[in-house]
Amino acid sequence: MDWEQEYSFRPGSFLGRLSPEDLRVLDITGRRVKFPRGVSAFLEGENPSRVFVSLRGRSKVYSSSPLGRSVVLGIRGPGDILGELSAIDGSPRIASAVTLEPSEMLVLPASSFQSFVEGRAGVASSLLRVLAERLRESDLNRTHFGSEDCATRVTLLLLDLVGRHGTLSGNQNGNGDANRIDLPLTQQDLADWVGESREAVTKALHALREAGVIETSRRQITILDTAQLAARVY
Hints:
Elements: H1 3-6, H2 20-29, E1 31-35, E2 40-42, E3 50-56, E4 59-64, E5 70-76, E6 81-82, H3 84-89, E7 96-99, E8 103-109, H4 110-118, H5 121-145, H6 150-165, E9 166-169, E10 178-181, H7 187-194, H8 198-210, E11 214-217, E12 220-223, H9 226-231
């Protein structure tokens, strides 16, 4: 299979770091499965039996707080690996993953994934780099979201999302340089991400709309002025 022609991966993703030979071995180790939008790939608390590698589409990874509230941990897209930690240490899953859009994933038995990593030094190194990147991202989120007010948390999140998932688009004012966050996220998703109530996030978004910084519609946010948005927190 010609991975470069069939799929498009972020260079720093797990698959984006693998050699052509590693990709070939990985492909014959797992099986490709298609998922419709809104389907759980795995659930928090499950015993790990499979590892998932995203080929197309994006998924939301989230966990539950001690009070039972959902906490969004991140978005995983093409090239990203999901469910690898539990497969490595054999512990129950600490998070759930649900597809945000129609997706395709390479699904591997946990034991086969372990053998794949242990038998190929380049794969192990790539996985360590991915895990280090996620740990750094988690630490930064704790620093930002643990010390700022809701409006600042929402602004920081929007800046991060538009940097990772922004696409140029027009808007009702004819601004062709607007950046649409290309993710079907609800206001509740944003609230779960920044650790605030939906009402507080709705208020923060309303203030940004009134300032002419963003436009919103159902499951869509467009940044009209990224520089002005950044100036609110930096």
